[in-house]
Amino acid sequence: MTSPHESHTTASSDSVIGSRLKPIREAAGFTQDFLADQMQKRGFDFTQSTVYKIETGKRKVTVAEAMALSEILESDLYALTATGDEEVPLIKIRLRTLARNLFTTVQSLDSGAHVAGMELVELEQEIENFESKFGKDATLTFGEDTATPRNYFHRLLVSASSHSPSGFLEDNDSEQDFELKNYLGLQSF
DSSP readout, 18-41? Predict the structure, then answer.
């Protein structure tokens, strides 16, 4: 009588790894090129074609390669060799990938918000300098119109945002847009 662990033969394990690699790679958000590059960095002679051949069962995987693949994919060997419909490892990998992407995005947004905040303070200082030198009602030329520095800045934001996918500060103001306009003392046009 064989145990469940003895039921895998070398040939079946090789085909299982090949069939499992693609969904695990995709769950991790990696391309074949990226995976091949990561394998090369670990000293393996891998190309995109190598990954494709493994995924389609045309190339076997050595134990060392399987260990490196599981490390890159932040998975375990079980996920690469499990037979049947093993959704749990894929879900874990996808959740980990999404969490990592979210963390990276939040870090980027935090950094961007910090820079934007510093630029906003600098802008406020420039507007105050202008107003103290020329008065609060002094205007600047904007095309054929004139506007106070605060309204001029608002027009520049609206103009720039019309080219942005988010539509920041367009006529249908969101609550955040309204708060920014209020902070800058801007009127609607």
Answer: HHHHHHHHHHTT--HHHHHHHHHH
